[in-house]
Input
Amino acid sequence: MKKIITIIDYGSGNLRSVYNALNLIDNKNYQFQISSNPEDLKYSDKIILPGVGAFADCIDSLSKIKKLIDILKEQILFKQKDFLGICVGMQLLADFGHEHEKKSGLGIIPGEIIKIDNQNGQLKIPHIGWNEIKIIEDHPILKNIKDGELFYFVHSYHFLVKNPKNIIAQVNYGQDLTAVIAQDNIIATQFHPEKSGESGIKLLKNFISS
Output
């Protein structure tokens, strides 16, 4: 029987790009689906939350889908299903976001989402493009990924993580920023693995096959 991996559709994110990237890896052992139905999460083996845009807009969109946040938390915190957050999908795990206004996040990984320091105008914001990641801790999600590999980033805000133990990789853009976080069954990336070529495919493969 195929394992079901659900990509949450809440009106924000590169849904089709993520879906297509996953199907490049394996469509024989896994069934990939895009869904906005919270009930589908109950029958999923793994869950992916993508995200593009502003933190406030994304958390509002999640909140508008009845029972989605409650069921999502139930499945990843109590059922311990593997979870992957991508870009704003990672940021939404925080306690608060400060993009445009202060908004509560999902409160799963302690920390806040704050604007990248432009170093007195020396850095362009948003941070867009390919950057090397610096691996902080070994983790199965980074299997076959080397320190210094390139991934594709697009963001103006970053995750200021409260517990450094949650950070397994960073990216330097004027300062060290969080690139990958992990906590038990929860994984999330600031970069877009679906847009990161072979390196991104390796990470997605590690996620679905873990």
Summary: The first strand starts at residue 3 and ends at 8. The chain has one domain: 3-209. The CA atoms of residues 13 and 190 lie 13 Å apart.
